[in-house]
Amino acid sequence: MPFGFIKDVTAKNSRIVAGLDVGSTRVCVVVGEVCPPKKSGTNGDGIAGRENHRGLRLIGMGYAPSRGIKKGVVINIEQTVESIKEAVRMAEEQTGVDIRTVTIGVTGSHIGYIPSQGVIAVKEKEIGRMDVEMVLDAARAVATPFDREVLHVIPTEFIVNGQGGITDPTGMAGIRLEAKVQIITGSASSIRNLVRCCEKAGLEALDVVFQPVAAAEAVLTRDEKDLGVALIDIGGGTTDIAFFHEGHMSHFSVLAVGGGNFTNDIAIGLRLPFQEAEQVKKGHGCTMLSMINSGEEMNIGCGEGKPARNIPRTHLVEILQPRAEELFGLIRDEITGRGFHNLLNAGVVLTGGAVLMQGMDVMAENILALPVRAGTASGIEGPPDIIGNPSCAAVAGLALREAEACFAELDGNGFFHGIKSKMIGWFK
Ligand SMILES: Nc1ncnc2c1ncn2[C@@H]1O[C@H](COP(=O)(O)OP(=O)(O)OP(=O)(O)O)[C@@H](O)[C@H]1O
Ligand SMILES: [Mg+2]
Questions:
Q1: DSSP string spanning 196-225?
Q2: Whole-prediction pTM value?
Q3: 112-186 CATH pick, 3.30.750.24, 3.90.226.10, 3.30.1490.20, 3.30.1490.110
Q4: In angstroms, what is the span from residue 49 Cα to ligand 1's centroid?
């Protein structure tokens, strides 16, 4: 067992954290060990080594095919529970850790946002952390429909005594503090079902995080968020586009298209069962005819009992290219239609399993007319198959969120205590 030294450690009472991504294609769990950021050097925000070394070492991962989830929403509780159990079992076997608590990611077209603002009078002359919390609470107090749950309150701007454009007012002098925020909400029943699946799988949910918020934390640099960047996660069932500008998320869209559509096209075009089509896509898929040799052949099975056959690879690429063009066309329309194109000075960062297909990055660059890079976790230690994999960005970010919650709970002696669930008071 590679990580036997941490056997019998439980996520509940130690420095072990776990992120759970219940995706449309696969359920994925990563386990990490929290190690305080090195004291040497700061990255300019006053937090020691935050981006260079973020205080998290991933030690293993478990995954299972996703059953019971469609486009980010639970459609079958029992099947989802089984998938979660299978992924958790694999992660536990690999790491020797008994996983009891997780931070869960959520996405899907049920996610929405409401702009809001709050204002408070500052009692002391200097604005403190409590004032910031109070003004954010005031902004959060906007009426949300009973069937929505607030996931995040993202400050976009603070205004002190009428002076706007402030990103952190702590320590400033002033008597009137205003905050402009984006409140990210999700369907209460969708979130509740996800949490219930975790509970049925024997896990306590510490927090529920919108996937792009988690992925951004793992892969985007502060500079990119300041300059303007689009984080695009192309998963199995959905494509999440999150826009960042002036340091914060300013907008997001969820398109109901993903890698599964490519597989469907192959299944129909080459008359293959879905699973076989999935293998062909992963083994030979490419989205650009100009990237392959016209004489290339590939071997495909024809389903049960039928002999394998050789076909030109161009047949496959002719199926995939129009689908990729259509997908990036939709993404381009979303970027330009919302007036973001000129704001994306740092370009586009791609995550999600579907971006692993050959040609996706080049096609993205051609159609979006923006610089594109693959989004892999940075500042986190761990095995290259997790850290260097754009399909693990979101789940790594979930573990990172939990690690950061651990730091917030560090006592004066530098000891970690159990993290309190942020979900107390939810689902009353
Ligand atoms: N090497 C590969 N080549 C092509 N496609 C791939 C490859 N690896 C994974 N995929 C595709 O990526 C998709 C799954 O990606 P991911 O694991 O990010 O999705 P998910 O999180 O389960 O789904 P969602 O985010 O939509 O809920 C599937 O369509 C899968 O076929
Ligand atoms: Mg996903």
A1: HHHHHTT-EEEEEEEHHHHHHHHH--HHHH
A2: 0.88
A3: 3.30.1490.110
A4: 32
Ligand 1 center to residue 235 CA distance, Å? 5
38 contacts: CB under 8 Å, gap ≥ 6: 48, 49, 52, 53
DSSP summary character for residue 238: -
- Right CATH number for 1-109+187-221+378-423 from 3.40.640.10, 3.90.1010.10, 3.30.420.40, 1.10.1740.10? 3.30.420.40
* Domains of the chain by residue range: 1-109+187-221+378-423, 112-186, 223-375
Gap from CA of 410 to ligand 2 centroid (Å): 31
Using the atom order of ligand 1, give the atom closest to the CA of residue 107.
Answer: 27
Distance CA 303, CA 47 (A): 56
Within 6 Å (CB) of ligand 1, which residues are found? 21, 23-26, 66, 72, 235-238, 258-260, 263, 278, 281-282, 285, 352-354, 356-357, 391
Q: Same fold for the domain at 1-109+187-221+378-423 and the one at 112-186?
A: no
Q: Which ligand is nearest to the CA of 258?
A: 1
pLDDT averaged over 10-residue windows placed end to end, the chain, 428 residues: 37 74 94 74 40 82 94 91 97 95 92 92 89 93 85 93 92 94 93 95 95 95 95 94 92 92 96 93 96 90 72 96 98 95 96 97 97 94 93 95 79 53 54
